[in-house]
Amino acid sequence: MPYRYHCPKCHALLNPNVRVVLVAQHGDDRGIVLMSSQLGDYQVIADKGFCSAIAPGEAVEFHCPVCTKSLTSPLYPGFAELVVRSIDHPDEKPCLLRFSRVSDEHATFLYDGDTVREFGEAAVRFRTNLDVEGDWSW
Ligand SMILES: [Zn+2]
């Protein structure tokens, strides 16, 4: 568990263990999803019934399980955002994580304020559209 994932709204820790706990909403359905805390690992644990209703290419809205606020990026509505801190380097400034809200679209970007690291095979499609600008305060 190299990173601690936090809600950008209430700052709650979202991976008390190895999984990142989020609430996903698809239409009127809501479910708990457990995402890997390993960047680039897109294995998700969720209710099979909830998942089967989501077709590849459909967007899911993610919410913080603590404050229930939407995690959708205000700048890039196709993405959700979390704040990430390094466990090994707790003094480093927090990073902004953006990941695609679209089912089966594996695109994740980690911004540390200066550089961007990308994960997932779909990331290359967004590379030119996502720049390093954003709100770094929290
Ligand atoms: Zn929250």
Structural notes for this entry:
- By secondary structure, the protein is mainly beta.
- The chain has one domain.
- The protein is built from one helix and nine strands.
- The strands form two sheets. It has a five-stranded antiparallel beta sheet, with no helix packed on it. It has a four-stranded antiparallel beta sheet with strand order 4-3-2-5.
- Strand 6 and strand 7 form a beta hairpin.
- The radius of gyration is 14 Å and the shape is globular.
- It starts with a strand and ends in a 19-residue tail after the last strand.
- The mean pLDDT is about 90.
- The structure holds zinc ion.
Structural class determined from secondary elements: mainly beta
User: What is the terminal-to-terminal distance?
Assistant: 22 Å
- Mean pLDDT, to the nearest integer, reads 89
* Cα gyration radius (Å): 14 Å
SSE pattern: EEEEHEEEEE
Shape verdict: globular
Largest sheet: 5 strands, antiparallel
Descriptive tags:
138 residues; mainly beta; 5-stranded antiparallel beta sheet; 4-stranded antiparallel beta sheet; binds zinc ion
Explain briefly what this protein structure is.
This protein is mostly beta strands.
Topology:
Elements: E1 3-6, E2 19-26, E3 29-36, E4 44-46, H1 48-52, E5 61-63, E6 79-86, E7 95-100, E8 108-111, E9 116-119
